[in-house]
Amino acid sequence: MKSDLPALMEAHKLDALLVFGDALHNPAMVYFTGVTHVTEAMLALRRGEQPLLFCHAMERDEAATSGLPTRSITDYKFSEILAASNGDLELAYARLYQRMLTDAGLTSGRVAVYGQRDAGRAFGLLSALGELLPDLEFVGEFGSSVLLEARATKDPAEIDRMRRIQKQTTEVVGQVADFLSRHRAQDSVLVDSEGQPVTVAKVKSKINLWLAERGLDNPHGTIFAPGAEGGVPHSMGSPDAVLRLGEPIVFDIFPVEAGGGYWADFTRTWCLGHASDGAQKLYDDVKFVFDTIVSELKPDTQCSTYQTRTCELFQQRGHPTVAEDPTTKVGFVHGLAHGLGLEVHERPAFGRDATPTDILRRGSVVTIEPGLYYPERGLGMRIEDAVFMRADGKPEILAEYPLDLVIPIRS
Amino acid sequence: MKSDLPALMEAHKLDALLVFGDALHNPAMVYFTGVTHVTEAMLALRRGEQPLLFCHAMERDEAATSGLPTRSITDYKFSEILAASNGDLELAYARLYQRMLTDAGLTSGRVAVYGQRDAGRAFGLLSALGELLPDLEFVGEFGSSVLLEARATKDPAEIDRMRRIQKQTTEVVGQVADFLSRHRAQDSVLVDSEGQPVTVAKVKSKINLWLAERGLDNPHGTIFAPGAEGGVPHSMGSPDAVLRLGEPIVFDIFPVEAGGGYWADFTRTWCLGHASDGAQKLYDDVKFVFDTIVSELKPDTQCSTYQTRTCELFQQRGHPTVAEDPTTKVGFVHGLAHGLGLEVHERPAFGRDATPTDILRRGSVVTIEPGLYYPERGLGMRIEDAVFMRADGKPEILAEYPLDLVIPIRS
Questions:
Q1: Rg of the Cα trace of chain A?
Q2: pLDDT at position B289, please?
Q3: For an interface test with B, which of A20, A141, A142 has the most B Cβ atoms less than 10 Å from its Cβ?
Q4: Within 13 Å and on the Cβ side, how many CA atoms surround B348?
Q5: In CA terms, which of A202, A398, B139, B387 is 20 to 30 Å from B317?
Q6: Nearest Cα to B216, choosing from B151, B160, B165, B273?
């Protein structure tokens, strides 16, 4: 958590952190500022000190809501720097940031860099600044990072927010279940009162309204993928697809607090009316693995062990897994879990990019999401909850929701 | 526009473009792929060839909707690369991308880099790749860029989409006007049927619902800033603020196509019931400047001339401007205009970062948004439309909406 930063920075020999970009939909910045309408900003955090936020004058009131000391970028009079640089935008930007860094006391030492930006702009600016400030070493961590390590455990205030958005998300899931079960079937296809098929697009438009009513953003959309589409884990569901009784629908929903704060992540797979035999069998296996893994979660264990265990359990039930073939497209084809927070996927990692430093700890919030996929049989099945590892070492499902496979439908 | 890319790349001596990140809310990627649920991807475009999209297997169906040839990142078996790198994530990532670039035929030449990513990850990965592929020169343009130059003019298909979202946005603005005028005032404060004040939060919740009904995302929120808050251009409006008759409310709305495509951008300033004398005077001046500038727009002129002209017009009417003092917080305090497209601010630039290469052209889409700000007098005033420069050289307002200052209210 945030209070770990000074020690983590010391362990990684970092003198400062530098964050670029907006305070909206930018996890590294929002971690320090909260969500606020500040754009094209820079935050400098010297080890053990309070962060300093540079922002434009016309966003001064929004910046003040961060509670951080601020400096005005406007006061550097960029138009004059640009004129003095003979209209060379790159030279002017490099000089502007050189002056800001100097005023922040950052002219030497090791500085780790963060923030959502255009990759080329970041690379170009940092390369140019490295020449202007030769005693400053920019550190671009591209595996894990000091900031991701800090964010890999959450403090109580973060848990409150995550519990709230996960709960709001399950409320919307409940509204979707009610919406579906209010319909009837005709020739095994779900239809409305006028006999028109209920499409995936129709369901998603309802989801977006119900999320908006709760003030949540849904920038990545929602997976609502029936039949064969659900057999490919990240297929979103075609807008015109109809919903057939018996076939599984993978429903994976992952909204974020308005403006880009903490994310929820939640999946159920539903069959309308009844479950086909194939769907029921997959459900039984996925549910067994889900329950087993949740019951076995313990703090201070390596995350990769749960991935291994999941593959073992699925293999025992006759399913191919990524353990034997990392490119398999049938069976268990992805990671069991991932950290959840200001990004929908963050540390700790459980899947292909897990290392020995990815450890489940007290304060971790992770998804648990075993799944099975047989696209050529028209079948996909996934169950996902968000789990918080409490101080007493027990896992807590952040928002409980029934695990039922079948949504009853009037025939 | 996109068809200009080969010539632009040749002029800038670029052999290829490389785009990192998602195909959601990532302008550089979406420009080539469209909005689709592809995450942590890489797109390689060699000059004059078709782009090649690298994506993970579980997003293969989503990637296919781009219509581009694709390669599976999963087939590189990252877990095996990581094991062969002794668990060193950075080494493993560098080797993975080295192999992908090699397979894309990119082992030498000058390659410009784009895409929303963490700044440190981009800097670190590109620095490491530069050592593994010494004949490849990564170019990080951090002023304007070849891609931004191409995007600075739009083709007819882009204009259709931009006209559509700007029109949808003005429909929502009309709903807000109707909503406000259905209320009455009590002691000069707008109240609902139960006598409760209509707050900024209430108005914004309606805006988000009406945007969601149209399938639009609103990741940066909406400015609905009454009185003194509207006197600071980017203050969003406090949730609990109430709406008083006569005082100006700056209403700046900028949604984006679902998943992060083209943006709308639109501002009106309204007074409820009647306009105070101060508000009316500011409105008259802003409206005069708005009409004058729109009438003077001509293709193939430098954008900075319109900024200069705006300052001149406001100065003639007695207002301070950024022309005399770039740090002024009263009068005309910002840029007149900016390019609009896959980013809410893109090229061409008109304000402090405008260069002689920022030229208004046939095919440009720009905002025109003069404004005046007197926060200590509780006054802010801005009018903004999106303007498309047609092939015949005439400006077209993308979505017409009345410029009236006063919203009638029952007294």
A1: 24
A2: 98
A3: A142
A4: 30
A5: B387
A6: B165
